[in-house]
Structure formats: C-alpha cells, structure tokens
Amino acid sequence: MLAITEQSAAVSVARRSADWGRDLAHIVAIVGNHFSDFNGNGFYPHPDEQALQAELLGVPGLARLAEAIAARPARALAITGLGLGQLDERERNAVLYAIALSGGFPTSTDQRTGRVAWDVRARPAGQAQAEFVTFSERVGGADMHTDSSFYPMPEEQFLLYVVAAARCQGGESLLLDVDDIERELRRSAAGRAACALLEETPLPFRVPSVYAAREQGVEYHLASVFERPAQLRGALAMRWRYDALLKGLAARPDLDGPALRAALALVNEVVETRAPLLPPPARRHPVVDRQPPRPARPRQVQRPRAPPDPHPYFQHAQRAPHRPVGHFG
C-alpha cells in the first residue's frame, strides 16, 4: 500500500502504489449520502462521526490506507501518488475528508462556520482584510508555528494536501523538533531562563480574526509556551505562534514585561534561525504532513510556505484520534 522511498529519524516519504479501483466512487457516494453541501470546500463535523467512520472504513482501499498511515512511526509522513488527480474538486474534497476521518475525528477551528477542512489560499484582491490575518489567508512565507496554538487543546494530527504546486517553486513545509529547540535554548543561561519562564507563565495567544467567534473584538487563550504533561512522561510539549503572542500581549499589557519579551524574542530567534530543520524529505515532498497520535500537544513546529499568488495550494484538515474535551467549535 505504502512503499517507503525516503526515511529519516523523524520523517518518512512513501508512495502509494495500489489502484483505488471502484473505491473512490464508493467513498464519494458515502460522503454524498451524509452531506448535502460541502460548505464551500469545507465540511462540518458530522453528528454521528463514529457511524460514518465505520461505514467509510468498510471501503477496502481506504481501510488499507488508514492502516498503512497508522503503522508509520515517523512524526511526519509525506505521501506521493495518492491517486486523486483525476477527480473533480467536489469528489477530491470528499475523499480527503474521508481520509482524515479514517484516522480520527476532524475538529473545527472555525467557530463561526464550524468547518473542519478548507482551502489554503490568499484573500481575493480588493477584499477587506481582517485585523489579524492568519497564514492561510495571505501570500508569502509563514513563520514557524504549531497549529491551533490559540485554542485550549490543539489537534494531535494535521493533514495538508497539495492541490497545485506554488509557481515560485516554494511551498515547502519546514519542520522542527521541539527537542532540538530546547537543546539549542539550553546552551546559554538566557535560554535556560527563557525555558523556565515560558513553562511557568500562562500567556495570551490571540485568535486570528477568521477563527474568532465574533467579527469584532479580541479573543485569546491563556497557555504556557512549554509544558511537560503527565501523558508524555516528562517529555516537552510546545505551543508557539509569535505573532499571536505579540497581539495577545498587546490586548493584555498587564501580563507583559521586559523579561517576558526578551524570552519570547530569544525563542523566536532560535525557532526561525538556529534550530536545525528536520532532514530534506519533509521539505521536498510537502504532500501530507502529520503528527502521530499523542495525548498532548504537538511536538513539532511547522512552517508551510504559501504561494506568491491566490492560486489554491493546500487543502487543510485537522483531526484528533479522540474529540478533545473543551476544544472550541
């Protein structure tokens, strides 16, 4: 089902070699029976996801793909040859939703529409810009970040699908390991102090306007940058989005201070310029990135580079093996 073509300690690149046969049409039919509208390239959480998941996993090709993905131990998996190129947009979206649901339960970061999947593309020229625009709404590079850092419980896995390669030859997904970030920080006294401060201090991560519950006003979530949850047996988990932190502190100046700003700036410098990128396979094949099931927050920082034009590039869905209690949406 998946033949590994490249392998590093944290990243696998695999090619799907099996023929879907009639399975794609079967998947589209099942999804179409449960959704009358795909919500403008998006999906709402289904009211009975477990039953729908079981029905979809009855399709042999999808079940084998889900098993093959789950069996890969790498923190990131890039899949080539997925075999959806002949489908129209509606059919492709249905299959991508089914792939996401086959390995977990998609969660919504869009509080107003409830979408669990959407196109990553720049806002059309002339459209009014929100006060806090997120990476998937604009062109250009995206700073290193962990997904859904501004929500109480970020997803344990995320999936990106390449619709069209960026015309600038960009569009790479750059990955860092939080262990490498911590290792680099602990080389200096300032870095060790930053680790301690950002592990013990809840900070306001501002919610981008498109994901906020209301069009007006400021929303944020208080959380520490670093955490060692019991579920990870002492391993470090990280929540990071520098622009969301700066905008959150602007809304909560009572939580701000020189020591905190210095710590955040140092972590940002390490994340953006000093921590080593994971090996090249993750950068050359930005087809599907995922993080394996874990009981806490992602342990990687991910930076998808957006295309220099409004052409659709990635289909984006997020999922969790179990619906997280207290997650927005």
From TrEMBL:
Which residues lie in Basic residues bias regions? 319-329
Q: What are the start and end residues of every segment in region (Disordered)?
A: 277-329
Q: Which superkingdom heads the taxonomic lineage of this protein's source?
A: Bacteria
Please indicate if the UniProt record lists Oxidoreductase as a keyword: yes
Q: Which keywords, in A-to-Z order, does the entry hold?
A: Dioxygenase, Oxidoreductase
TauD/TfdA-like domain: which residues? 79-272
Q: What is this protein called?
A: Taurine catabolism dioxygenase TauD, TfdA family
User: Which organism does this record belong to?
Assistant: Rugamonas rubra
